[in-house]
User: Which sequence fits this backbone?
């Protein structure tokens, strides 16, 4: 195995002597790349955003923005990074930097390098293209306020610029000074990269290979195996190993709770965990695909997931986070489980002994515990087909972008001839684990999909789980939101005979 | 037009230029205090030992275990302090406490070769605590009679008679939350001992002179032995006015004891759990209106939640009292203030400095009472706006109230307010589960420090032989664009292009005895001082140029990098040539500038005087849409007209208005400080002490349509180049969003429903307001005279004596 290195702004820098838990942020700063800032150390503010060359879906390589505070630098062995310093200099500004500078996009400047990197990632997004001005809407209706993409994705609205810039790209960056308007204007003023832009040209070359990595020091070790078989053997030998997928959860533990693991095994780039297979009776999603990748891959195929993703954390987080991680940590407030429960999804668990498939509804056993055995990892998530006909994802939070749910609800219903044939309702934030709203499902199934049934079922749903009082919401509000979610879902999905009545 | 406000031809002020550091910001080249540690050799890292109890006596402190941790160099405790063990100016903030006063209070500090070593060392320190009873909420403090500092009363007219004569009397109660600054750059200091024992501290501070004073008194040194520099801050918002001092002192103490540079940077959780925030308040009020809805009398008692020590709570309270009128004429006023002492962080300055809290009370009163008076809120507000000839409750004439009226009318017009009010009503009729609200609110904000002595500024301007100019002033840059404005002022006064002027970082050995960069006064005070310094140099150069041009010195004009005579067709003298000429004639090419704001007086014991040089005005109209299922909402459109006088720098000013507005929206709707109020061991812990739990506005809170216009014909005679301060006032334009939310929530109930709205108005708070409106429960405003009388101060209530006045008092006695 070669000694680990990272290429930053075109320079190859060695990782010798770096402690395995060192974050990319701390390492970059120790290399004098001081534009990378720590604002929160938990992936919420984006002041540490940097560009990483990742495999692309519409071009061989895509510049992807990541929170450097969450990722151990060892996990970027062999990779190419670009920081704000690498985009341009004060005497030769990059187009993104120029627009930010001249439009008042910076005030204190501390969040700015991170904003610049997140914005540059969207600037270089290969399929970003100018949008058509919309035809005047006959009813003057406003764009969807929940932040989802415009219905056809082709028209500018307040979250999509005429240049195709998607403001969700900046949903993981916080600015305390400007109020964001000048940053939006800078984003919407960007053109396309020039013909001689080297970072644009880099997209057409293959992404950096992912080498095996072993970095040890201070009694701790970071290991990146190169195959699933090698990983499972390692896990069989050292079952206490901490599995690292997107590091969006573990990174927070390292920074805020000073967690240190004796052995970290990175599985986020294993080819066997990065497959996507849309078959005729099941869609299988590799557990180590990032949510951004899944978002692109499932486009149109799984409407419930399309509704979930814009509400799931931020673009910066989705660029790293994976289904495997979101299910693997077993958090009761993760946003993926309620949606996947409503799709009747299952997880594929792999170990040196082989594979088994477990229904997600039977996966969680308690607070952050599951049926996953030592030596097992989540290889994939399976969504059976056909999917429910009526789907919805309702998230209750204080902030629309990048907040943690106080309550999350996934709906998957089949309604035939005005009668509920099947009801799958996944809940997050109301119990020690994500749960199905079984009593509510029962109150709906076989009943007409109408106001009477729904109001009755909503009363049942408000008693599901055991919601708590905390700093995010009161128990009373959480309970109320469960019932309200069903009423709202029904109001938006009335049975055909109800519509236009 | 005054000499101070008059602009020359082709001034550099007033042109839209980007922030002076914009190119450095966007490339990551701009340096902040913590970045300097990378450039400094052999730096030690400081880590606090935080005691996790709301209130406890420290009965034992064993630091030896920390010294066993590899890489730990030293543990700093009270025994190490050669001077005064205090981090503040009131001597109620021990730097190393013997009593834990809030959950997370730092009791000692560990220095390590690495931050990891210091952290592990801190974890090894053993602290024995004897828990003591604690007060967490302001209500607990009120019930326990736990107050600190002075208890001022601001009074005009006869409140009882005013209420007796009112057709409508209402009384109510209102408790609202504070706000975490959440500057993106957390607190940081880097201290080292320079040649000959000179202590040099780089600090992220809004008040370098006071940081210097505190470092000196902790170390037992004179001020002349300590130099403090602030390159720039990654945001301040008032949070770095007082709070940096103790942290800088820890770093400086470590540096003097070890002989090595010491870096102290708080991480986010430490910053939020240890440093002060905006004060939350409790208010009880009675108000009287006549039949037309004109305010007749206001009787209120405001109790601020000061936290464990006084810090700036007294002046914050004074400003709250002075702004309870906001923009409204109230003939009879009595407002009492007091500061609760609780076991929380010591609350401090935050953009608006009590003004927002005072104004929020009257806006809440009007918003709640409008339906009870059968009036729409916009009419009720406009009917009560100040008009010519009226004075504030503390006796200051309200100058230029017509500008407020102009701004109000302009917002009504530009926002199409009347037509959109109809549209909102039609929308609400057509939608059972979604409602909109459209509200308009004014701002009147007094500019100057309440305390007269602070209204002074200094500058140092150098012109070098090559004609380049270097300016230095007492103000600090925290993103507000002060340095940009100062460069524009210097270029304007000297008549040189902007690029000829550079600015050097703020340092206490360049300009001494400075005031905090606070109270929105940075540009007023320092700009006038720079102008003064530049004028001194320009006058000397005019002598040289006059001789060369053959004109009288008074007839020399400086513009566009040249000196020329008026009314003569003589060749101009280029600036660089003139400077060279002056040097060889042995003319002094640098100057110290000074400015004091004239005409201010204030007596805080009687709460009367004319503390403000002028008022800044603004008006905002906001439209929101609320989801009846969840209480979630978004801001559809905002229209603002704001008064910045004649703008010094339009891009900067618009940035301040927009940014202040969104920060205000954050305070009023989203940002949720939740302390553990339970009786367990974590009582007093801030549950929202991280970015993941304390949510500030993100892109999703930006208004979809956001129109900001500067008020025209707004020259301010009393300030540099006719401008007005802009830092704080726009924050309070955000009341429009809160009032729009109240109206939208009310629309779920029958017409005329009054609604109480919690602050912050989170989706949950709005949902409960909607449920109350639907249940026609209405608000909790009591109707009828004489109403519920707010608590009045006892005869023995301590008087208000802000510390600086006390200092002067002591000095005059000795």
Assistant:
């Amino acid at each position: 195995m070669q000694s680990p290195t990272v290429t930053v702004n075109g320079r190859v820098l060695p990782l010798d002597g770096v402690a395995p838990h060192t974050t990319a942020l701390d390492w970059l700063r120790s290399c004098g790349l001081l534009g990378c800032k720590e604002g929160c150390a938990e992936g919420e503010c984006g002041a540490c955003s940097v560009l990483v060359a990742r495999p692309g879906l519409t071009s061989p390589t895509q510049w992807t923005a990541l929170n450097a505070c969450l990722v151990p630098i060892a996990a970027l062995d062999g990779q190419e990074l670009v920081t704000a310093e690498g985009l341009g200099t004060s005497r030769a500004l990059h187009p993104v930097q120029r627009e930010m500078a001249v439009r008042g996009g910076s005030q204190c400047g501390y969040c700015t390098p991170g904003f610049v990197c997140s914005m540059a990632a969207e600037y270089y997004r290969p399929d970003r293209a100018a949008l058509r001005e919309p035809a005047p809407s006959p009813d003057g209706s406003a764009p969807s306020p929940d932040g989802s993409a415009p219905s056809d994705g082709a028209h500018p609205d307040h979250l999509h610029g005429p240049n195709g810039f998607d403001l969700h790209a900046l949903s993981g960056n916080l600015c305390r000074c400007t109020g964001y308007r000048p940053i939006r204007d800078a984003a919407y003023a960007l053109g396309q990269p020039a013909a001689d832009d080297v970072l644009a040209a880099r997209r057409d070359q293959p992404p950096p290979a992912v080498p095996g990595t072993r970095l040890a020091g201070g009694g701790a070790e970071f290991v990146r195996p190169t195959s699933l078989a090698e990983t499972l053997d390692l896990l069989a030998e050292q079952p206490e190993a901490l599995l690292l997928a997107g590091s969006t959860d573990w990174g927070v533990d390292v920074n805020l709770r000073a967690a240190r693991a004796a052995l970290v095994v990175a599985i986020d780039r294993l080819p066997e965990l990065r497959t996507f297979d849309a078959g005729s009776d099941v869609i299988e999603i590799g557990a180590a695909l990032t949510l951004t990748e899944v978002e692109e891959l499932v486009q149109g195929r799984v409407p419930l997931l399309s509704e979930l993703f814009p509400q799931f954390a931020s673009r910066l987080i989705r660029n790293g986070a994976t289904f495997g991680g979101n299910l693997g940590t077993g958090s009761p407030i993760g946003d993926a489980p309620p949606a996947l429960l409503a799709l009747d999804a299952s997880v594929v668990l792999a170990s040196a002994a082989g594979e088994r498939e477990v229904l997600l509804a039977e996966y969680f056993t308690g607070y952050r515990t599951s049926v996953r055995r030592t030596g097992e990892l989540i290889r994939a998530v399976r969504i059976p087909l056909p999917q429910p006909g009526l789907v919805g994802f309702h998230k209750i939070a204080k902030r629309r972008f990048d907040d943690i749910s106080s309550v999350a609800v996934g709906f998957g219903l089949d309604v035939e001839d005005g009668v509920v044939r099947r009801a799958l309702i996944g809940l997050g934030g109301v119990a020690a684990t994500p749960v199905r709203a079984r009593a509510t499902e029962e109150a709906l199934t076989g009943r007409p999909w109408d106001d009477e049934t729904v109001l009755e079922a909503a009363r049942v749903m408000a008693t599901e789980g055991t919601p708590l009082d905390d700093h995010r919401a009161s128990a009373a509000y959480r309970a109320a939101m469960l019932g309200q979610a069903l009423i709202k879902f029904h109001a938006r999905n009335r049975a055909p005979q109800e519509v236009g009545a | 037009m005054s000499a101070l406000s008059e602009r020359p031809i082709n001034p550099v002020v007033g042109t839209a230029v980007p922030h002076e550091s914009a190119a450095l910001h966007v490339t990551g080249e701009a340096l902040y205090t913590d970045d300097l540690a990378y450039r400094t050799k052999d730096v030690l890292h400081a880590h606090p030992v935080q005691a996790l109890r709301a209130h406890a006596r420290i009965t034992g402190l064993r630091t030896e275990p920390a010294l066993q941790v590899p890489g730990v160099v030293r543990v700093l405790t009270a025994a190490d302090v050669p001077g005064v063990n205090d981090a503040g100016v009131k001597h109620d903030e021990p730097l190393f406490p013997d009593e834990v006063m809030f959950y997370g209070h730092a009791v000692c500090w560990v220095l390590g070769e690495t931050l990891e070593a210091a952290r592990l060392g801190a974890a090894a320190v053993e602290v024995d605590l004897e828990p003591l009873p604690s007060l967490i909420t302001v209500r607990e403090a009120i019930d326990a009679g736990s107050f600190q500092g002075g208890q001022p009363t601001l009074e005009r007219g006869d409140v009882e008679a005013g209420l007796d004569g009112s057709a409508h009397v209402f009384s109510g109660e209102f408790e609202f939350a504070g706000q975490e600054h959440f500057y993106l750059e957390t607190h940081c200091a880097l201290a080292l001992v320079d040649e000959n024992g000179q202590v040099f501290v780089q600090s992220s501070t809004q008040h370098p002179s006071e940081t210097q004073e505190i470092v000196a008194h902790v170390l037992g040194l004179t001020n002349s032995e300590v130099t403090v520099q602030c390159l720039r801050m990654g945001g301040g918002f008032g949070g770095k006015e007082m709070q940096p001092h103790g942290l800088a002192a820890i770093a400086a103490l470590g540096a003097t004891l070890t002989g090595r540079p010491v870096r102290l940077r708080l991480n986010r959780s430490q910053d939020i759990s240890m440093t002060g925030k905006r004060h939350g308040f409790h208010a009880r009020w009675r108000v009287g209106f006549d039949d037309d809805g004109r305010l007749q009398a206001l009787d209120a008692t405001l109790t601020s939640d000061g936290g464990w020590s006084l810090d700036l709570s007294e002046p914050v309270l004074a400003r709250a009292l002075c702004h309870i009128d906001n923009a409204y004429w109230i003939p009879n006023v009595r407002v009492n203030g007091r500061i609760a002492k609780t076991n929380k962080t010591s609350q401090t300055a935050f953009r608006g400095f009590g003004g927002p809290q005072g104004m929020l009370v009257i806006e809440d009163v009007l918003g709640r009472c409008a339906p009870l008076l059968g009036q729409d809120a916009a009419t009720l507000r406009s009917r009560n706006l100040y008009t010519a000839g009226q004075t504030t409750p503390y006796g200051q004439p309200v100058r230029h109230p017509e500008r407020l009226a102009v701004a109000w009318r302009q917002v009504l017009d530009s926002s199409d307010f009347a037509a959109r009010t109809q549209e909102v009503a039609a929308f609400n009729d057509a939608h059972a589960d979604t409602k909109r609200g459209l509200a308009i609110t004014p701002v009147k904000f007094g500019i100057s420090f309440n305390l007269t002595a602070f209204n002074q500024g200094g500058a140092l301007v150098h012109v070098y032989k090559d004609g380049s100019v270097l300016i230095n002033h007492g103000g600090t840059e925290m993103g507000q664009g002060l340095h940009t404005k100062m460069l524009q002022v210097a270029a304007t006064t000297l008549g040189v292009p902007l690029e000829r002027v550079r600015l050097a970082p703020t340092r206490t050995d360049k300009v001494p005895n400075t005031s905090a960069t606070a109270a929105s006064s940075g540009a007023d005070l320092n700009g006038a001082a720079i102008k003064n310094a530049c004028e001194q140099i320009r006058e000397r150069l005019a002598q040289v140029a006059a001789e060369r041009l053959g004109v009288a010195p008074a007839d020399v004009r400086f513009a566009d990098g040249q000196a020329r005579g008026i009314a003569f067709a003589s060749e101009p003298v280029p600036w660089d040539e003139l400077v060279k000429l002056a040097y060889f004639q042995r003319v002094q090419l640098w100057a110290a500038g000074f400015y004091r704001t004239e005409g201010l007086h204030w007596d805080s014991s009687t709460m009367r005087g004319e503390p403000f040089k002028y008022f800044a005005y603004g008006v905002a109209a906001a439209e929101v849409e609320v989801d009846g299922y969840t209480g979630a909402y978004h801001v559809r459109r905002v229209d603002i007209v704001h008064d910045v006088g004649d703008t010094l720098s339009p891009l900067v000013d618009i940035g301040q208005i927009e940014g202040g507005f969104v920060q205000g929206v954050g305070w009023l709707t989203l940002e949720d400080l939740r302390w553990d109020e339970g009786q367990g061991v974590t009582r007093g812990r801030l549950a929202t002490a991280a970015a993941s739990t304390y949510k500030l506005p993100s892109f999703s809170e930006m208004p979809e349509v956001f129109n900001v216009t500067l008020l025209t014909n707004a020259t301010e005679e009393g300030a540099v180049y006719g401008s007005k301060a802009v830092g704080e006032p726009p924050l309070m334009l955000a009341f429009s969003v809160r009032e729009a939310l109240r109206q939208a929530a009310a629309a779920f109930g029958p017409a005329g429903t009054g609604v109480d709205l919690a602050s912050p108005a989170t989706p949950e708070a709005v949902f409960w307001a909607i449920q109350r409106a639907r249940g026609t429960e209405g608000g909790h405003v009591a109707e009828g005279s004489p109403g519920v009388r707010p608590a009045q101060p006892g005869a023995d209530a301590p008087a208000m004596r802000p510390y600086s006045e006390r200092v002067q008092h002591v000095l005059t006695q000795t």
About this structure: Chain A has three domains: 1-132+149-208, 225-387, 394-492. Residues 475-492 of chain A form the longest helix (18 residues).
